[in-house]
Amino acid sequence: MVPISQVLEKSWIMKQRFFVLACMLAASSCFAPSARAWGCKGHQTVALIAEKHVTKEARQLVDKLLGENPIEPKLKRGCGNTTPDFMVDASTWPDDVRNERHNGPWHYIDIPRGKHKGSIEEYCGADGCVTRAIEEQRSILKDKSADPVKRAEAIRYLIHFVGDMHQPLHAINNGDNGGNCVPVKYLHHEPLLNLLHSEREDYSPNLHQVWDTEIVERDMEVSNPHRYADELDEKFRAESESWEAAGIHVENWAWEVHERAETEVYEAFSVKMPIEPDVKPKGCSDNNHIGKRQFEKHLTVDETYQSRAAKTAGKSLAEAGVRLAMILNDAAKSNP
């Protein structure tokens, strides 16, 4: 007779495999890897916070350019149908055109762990990075002689990229693809191997996707982006004045976010996370099997980590919204 412990173990393994396969086939509510920093609700929250801080002139400029140069109606929108709020609708557009525009590298900058203040350009690859993309799109928006279509796209890129850059794992790399190769147990969800491509050593949940969406949306609970934006704007009202007073310094912002990732993402674990070699693995089986090695650490994002991370994420979203408004206000001054 087969021992009951073996029967239960086999049953658990089969359930795991079924769950992973179902996720891959459905690709919806399960923990599927995401390239959307902050997810739909997070990006919309950034746009809504920015709306509270833009000048009348900036809002007129944004609404005119976006209204007269709308998004292609046939474009498949990953975050649902269009909304009448131009800035909210624009906030997720760069992800929708990510593949056709080949703008993937524009969403992040791989500053290695252990690096500190200095020139950031050396970490910006040949295909660009988020800091360079923000500066380039700022220049297009401020140029009154530029093609209005390009200026409208510049607004959409800026709304999205300023949000992206403030997601801590979009400004750091530890030989782990920005945390994508760090399997974690998120509350009661165990990390599961992608069985369709097990050779890649991809797991879900992983650290990057948890910071992209799960931490923020759990903190929001039943709130919608409008209510969450109101809450964050009120919570960080005093600090927003100092952010505005400091002026627009995109590289400095990236360094701030990088340091935040060091302390609030990697160092927040009870298990020590060593600094890995400065490499950019093509997959989680690279860098001496980084995915498998991190899986064996049994890292957990528990309620304590979640609570601390939610405070960090909330501040990051508020900063992104205020700083986005600063960029739009500055552009409006150049377009009287």
Number of strands: 4
Question: How do the SSEs run, as a string of H and E?
Answer: HHHHHHHHEEEHHHHHEH
The residue fraction in helices comes out at 55-70%
Average per-residue pLDDT, rounded, comes to 90
Q: Report strand %.
A: under 5%
Shape: globular
Largest sheet features: 2 strands, parallel
Structural write-up:
The protein has 336 residues and is an all-alpha fold. The protein has one domain (34-333): Orthogonal Bundle (P1 Nuclease). Helices cover 55% and strands 2% of the residues. The protein is built from 14 helices and four strands. The chain has helices spanning 4-26, 39-51, 56-68, 86-90, 93-96, 98-101, 130-142, 148-165, 207-220, 225-235, 237-245, 250-266, 286-295, 303-333, and strands at 185-186, 192-193, 203-204, 300-301. The strands form two sheets. It has a two-stranded parallel sheet with strand order 1-4. A two-stranded antiparallel sheet has the order 2-3. The longest helix is centred in the C-terminal third of the chain and has 31 residues, at 303-333. The radius of gyration is 21 Å and the shape is globular. The N and C termini lie far apart (84 Å). 43% of the residues are buried.
Keywords for this structure?
336 residues, mainly alpha, P1 Nuclease, two-stranded antiparallel sheet, 14 helices, 2% strand
Indicate the topology.
Elements: H1 4-26, H2 39-51, H3 56-68, H4 86-90, H5 93-96, H6 98-101, H7 130-142, H8 148-165, E1 185-186, E2 192-193, E3 203-204, H9 207-220, H10 225-235, H11 237-245, H12 250-266, H13 286-295, E4 300-301, H14 303-333
Parallel strand pairs: 1-4
Antiparallel strand pairs: 2-3
